[in-house]
Amino acid sequence: MAEIVRMPKLSDTMTEGVVAEWHKNIGDQIESGDLLAEIETDKATMEFESFQDGVLLHIGVEKGQTAPVDSILAILGEKGEDVSQLLKEAEKEESQPKDEVKLEEKIVSEPKPVSEKIVSSPSPFQNPSVSTSSSYPKASELNTLDIKVSPLAKKLAEERGLNLKFIKGSGTEGRIIKRDIDNYQISGSNFSGVESFTDFPVTQMRKVIAQRLAESKFTAPHFYLSMSIDMDNAIAARVSINNAIKPQKVSFNDMVVKAVAASLKDNPQVNASWLGDVIRQNDHVHIGVAVAVDEGLLVPVVRFADGKTLTQIGEEVKAMAQKAKDKKLQPEEWEGNTFTISNLGMFGIDEFTAIVNPPDSCILAIGGIQNIPVVKDGTVIPGNIMKVTLSCDHRVVDGAVGSAFLNSFKNYMENPVVLLGKNSI
Length: 425
What we know:
The longest helix has 16 residues, at 204-219. Helix content is 30%, strand content 25%. It has a six-stranded mixed sheet with strand order 11-20-19-18-14-17. The chain has three domains: 3-109, CATH 2.40.50.100; 136-194, E3-binding domain (Dihydrolipoamide Transferase, Irregular), CATH 4.10.320.10; 220-419, Chloramphenicol acetyltransferase-like domain (Chloramphenicol Acetyltransferase, 2-Layer Sandwich). The protein is flat. The two termini are 59 Å apart. By secondary structure, the chain is an alpha+beta fold.
């Protein structure tokens, strides 16, 4: 008997999916465990295996198309079986209004495409729709009847996007000829350009990132605390560590993760989440590390970071960052964060603020290390300063609590010997 295979919910935030690839065709025999399709979620492209046996009788979502969770993905059954009645019944059931539909689910599952051409494109970097504005006339339309111009000069003007109104002719009776076009110097006041743009479809990942960040920014009351940290000792400690553990390397980001984990144990009020009726204070420390990918931002999670060494943290972050860029992260690798770090220092950013990443109550923005003059003991000397900014959800973390956390973090970074206790490297 024919059975419907529905669009699976492959992550906690997934409301719709895109079929990135079909691995089976209509008429193929399917066995339980066979790779049926690849589904693009809001965070990764994941393999979807069949849980049923049978012949693939119907494909409900073609490659590159988007469909809500629980919609008809495919139908499996016996060879030659008629599925038309099953489809009618399923479509009738789906058309019936549901009692409870969340507004955000409507927003995500019913995106308004810019154009049909864009919606049918499976990737923002394949077959982009390029449009040209028609609000400005072409050069040929600007060549009015009262302008005398030779056919060759007119053609050259059109090719170069020149407005003949601004070109003085040197031919008989002021006629514009080829040499006038060649000798014409374009200036900012008379250049006639053509407006153009390229529309890329919004991916599942970008949709959900936009939705979650908007919800966070406009529902969680943010406030920001900034601090400058003297990195001289951290720089010296890192050099010593890397000389001792060659060929392995410890990065400043690894030290930041370790220091944040220790600071959260010192200040558990920051390691918390707003759940409406309660504030959940976590005893475990799971630190999300924001990773930039082509389609947005992913946050793989270093679990129990307070119990891991610098080299363990470094290896884990490096491996998960690569998996994030390859869209191979699994749900258990991006869920469960209790605090998030966003480090843009390696991109040359000195200082910035970040949006709290739910369910966390705080996110720490890390800037680059700047070599600048500093005053020590009344003397101006070269110094290495790193600026950090803590974004806080004011419903959970107050200014004094956030400041205490930052001071703990500052102490660990400026005194790495305190951070690097037994079994820390």
